[in-house]
Amino acid sequence: MNAYESRPWLAHYPSGLSEHLDVEFGSPLEMFDAALAASPDAPAVHYFGATLSWADLDAASDALAHALQEHGFAVGDLLGIAVQNEPAIVLGLLAAWKVGGVAALISPMYKRGEFRRALDDFTPAALLVLDEVHAEVADELGSIGLVVTASPLDFAGSDDLQRVFDVSRVSTAGTVELLDLIGTGSRAVTRHAPAPDDVAVLAPTSGTTGPPKGAKLTHRNLTFSAQAYRTWTGLQSGEPILCMSPIFHVTGLVGSVMLALSLRSPLILTHRFDAGLVLDAVRAWRPAFSVASITAYIALADHPEATPEAFDSLRLRYSGGAPVLPDVAERIEERLGGMIHNVYGQTESTSPTHMVPPGVLAPVDAETGALSVGLPIFDTMARVVDERGEPVPPGTFGEIVTAGPQIAAGYWGQDDDGSALRHGEMRTGDVGFMDADGWFYVIDRSNDLINASGYKIWPFEIEQVLQSHPAVLETAVVGIPDDYRGESTRAYVALQPGAEVTPTELIEYCRERMAAYKYPREVEIVGALPRSATGKLLRRELR
């Protein structure tokens, strides 16, 4: 028996927990139906001073589901969803599942070209999209059967949203508005009961060898991970969940929406993250749990009105998506009170594979200074392997590999291509180690992926945009340390002979063509890029 099979981490599990998790539900729709049956009038979503009950969500998602079926949406079809953290995204998920469909998540932060690529990858039969996004990408939609537009103002009960984000309703010709559909549409739906191994969500993830792929997350993946969060943290039914992570990413989807369904708890949404709005929401709704990137907690700690008293209800604070430095965690804990706990996973692992037990101070590795990302959760085998895939002893660096009920079924439209998902295992691409007590640490990544505030950035996407500038000869993008975002992007650019352009102009050129988290924060003009004798770009020299 090797160190991984002996599972030394079990000694550190939360009190009374075993390594095995008995999952109560087979699909998120079953979780929703149970919440609806138990307390139909109980609060399900809080959004800018307004509250929607479970019955409200049921009626509104029925109307959307009916419209989908009326437009020929069939079992197994894809509903593209490009919405921020608003009630509409919850309605879209429920409607898709009620008719046996798959929710294909698309970032509403995408620019035209990025949105077009997502549509080409997923080919959705219908689309639920923010009106402001539709205005930008309308001529990229092609022949999608039904396009439903939502506004961030839908369901809002106060003007705080407009005050902070300056949003307004946008005219969307040729679409159906969500509120009109809900107000006038039929609730007659031919319900489909999804099987646990049916695909529920396509979650986009930046690959290490190419463009983003759609990870096929099954209903079983989602219900397992939701209950893992619930059981590990000890959250009680009805305790409010604060959503600070984007729901179109796996952390917000699972650690907020799915968890709230599992707990029959109200979900607190704020459209996008804003420290002041989140502080207001915490005061108003008194959430017990949240999971977000460390950047969000830094912003909260820096808010002038932040105090430990303001956040005393938020007893469970987890951080995922980006590494947490020990001194940063200490500063946040001093400012906000409470403890910041790590959670670790990937899109392909439906969020958590490792978590720090509540109330436990995660160890810091003396040699590297790294804060542990936690212990493997229920039913999860985690190991560290060498280049041949062989397990290495505790304390030895290697690639972290995970396996368990939360691992995705594969990638949309792709067979097993020898990439991250192999034989039910997830090759994370993260370099780290396990200590003798079973705590895991992430030290670096084995690829060129850049992680800024939890957003994954593929350098080639930025390089393609820069390369399209007439003054640019060639370019390379690397990640650089950033105290606030964890990692940021720097582009090295060689210019065409005789060409002139400033770094500021190139940054602005990218900003106009890319999502806000992607464009390079720094550009350095160089005479030439370093290459090997065979012409291979040497990124390590740029770093």
TrEMBL record:
<dbReference type="InterPro" id="IPR025110">
    <property type="entry name" value="AMP-bd_C"/>
</dbReference>
<dbReference type="InterPro" id="IPR020845">
    <property type="entry name" value="AMP-binding_CS"/>
</dbReference>
<dbReference type="InterPro" id="IPR045851">
    <property type="entry name" value="AMP-bd_C_sf"/>
</dbReference>
<feature type="domain" description="AMP-dependent synthetase/ligase">
    <location>
        <begin position="32"/>
        <end position="412"/>
    </location>
</feature>
<dbReference type="Pfam" id="PF13193">
    <property type="entry name" value="AMP-binding_C"/>
</dbReference>
<dbReference type="InterPro" id="IPR042099">
    <property type="entry name" value="ANL_N_sf"/>
</dbReference>
<dbReference type="InterPro" id="IPR050237">
    <property type="entry name" value="ATP-dep_AMP-bd_enzyme"/>
</dbReference>
<dbReference type="Pfam" id="PF00501">
    <property type="entry name" value="AMP-binding"/>
</dbReference>
<dbReference type="InterPro" id="IPR000873">
    <property type="entry name" value="AMP-dep_synth/lig_dom"/>
</dbReference>
<keyword id="KW-0436">Ligase</keyword>
<protein>
    <submittedName>
        <fullName>Long-chain fatty-acid--CoA ligase</fullName>
    </submittedName>
</protein>
<dbReference type="GO" id="GO:0016878">
    <property type="term" value="F:acid-thiol ligase activity"/>
</dbReference>
<feature type="domain" description="AMP-binding enzyme C-terminal">
    <location>
        <begin position="461"/>
        <end position="536"/>
    </location>
</feature>
